Every structure is written in structure tokens, then in C-alpha cells.
Amino acid sequence: xxxxxxxxxxxxxxxxxxxxxxxxxxxxxxxxxxxxxxxxxxxxxxxxxxxxxxxxxxxxxxxxxxxxxxxxxxxxxxxxxxxxxxxxxxxxxxxxxxxxxxxxxxxxxxxxxxxxxxxxxxxxxxxxxxxxxxxxxxxxxxxxxxxxxxxxxxxxxxxxxxxxxxxxxxxxxxxxxxxxxxxxxxxxxxxxx
Length: 193
Known about the structure:
Layout (H helix, E strand, L loop, with lengths): L7 H5 L1 E4 L4 E3 L3 E7 L9 H17 L4 E6 L5 H13 L3 H21 L3 E9 L4 H17 L4 E3 L2 H11 L28
Antiparallel strand pairs: 1-2, 2-3, 3-5, 3-6, 4-5
Helix pairs in contact: 3-4
């Protein structure tokens, strides 16, 4: 087995970032970040209109994919671990600290529970750059015409989404293109060193 297939990137099929999105081993994906609508403040009739607009958009662009992701880290695993420690810990001072940690994780999870990120994705299999550009413009126009506020995601936004999805970032901070590049001062190195 080749070494590059042993990497996480190889296992999930990510090859590289492109001008329009992400290239995988099977296709290229372009992502549109969708501004969510708070349906809890809409009337039933307005919700029906939104659903109808989504149905019409999907009939206009049948290959459009919909993604709904948490826009921040999930703390369920951490909470389960702290809860187990609470049940087994004998030291009362440590139990108080563990309870404070659990309460804190619970509090921030509640605050972030409504933090969702919605996206549309378009998959390209064999199209050339010019075709991709034209399709993306057509999709962008159709999204707008059907009442959705969306914009194509940049490379850094896609990296943030992937980092949150794969659990490599809690808050979605910027991830460098090359792991560890910030740890070395390559500018200051000379051949004599």
C-alpha cells in the first residue's frame, strides 16, 4: 500500500484545493454557504413558501446537495468522560473541579447548540474549468432566485468546515496549508547552519 493512502487525507479521498472548491479522488466539489432562516419566527404560510422555494430550487438543480453541520465542536465525548470520572473519583476537591468542568461543557454546548452551518454543494466529475465556472454561476443565480442568501465558500472557509467536521479544531481557527509550517523560521536559515 502506498504511503499517501495511509494518511487521513488519502483515506477520506481529499486530493487538493482547487480554484472552485475541493478535489477528491472521485470528483470536485464547490460549496455555497447558506444564511439560515429562523423559521421559529415565521408563520406556517411563510414556512410553506420556504419549503416550496427549496423544492423548486432542487427541481431546477437536481444534483444540488444539502449539508447541515455543527459550526463548532461537539462536546459529548468530553462530557461522557468527565461524568465517568465524577462517578469514580473519591477526592471531594477533585469531584468539585470535575463537576465545574462538566457544568462548563454543558453551558457552552447549550450556547452553541443552535450554531448550525448550512451549505449547498455541487459535484463535478469530468467538467473542465470553464464548464465548472459556468455551472457555478448558474447555481449561484438559481439559489438567489429561489430566495436563499448564499455565497461560494473560499478555501479558508472550506478548511474551517473540514477541520470542524473531522474534529481537528474546536473553534474553527485557521489551519495552515502545511502542518507545522508556523513552527519553523525557514527565512532565517542559511546553508552554513
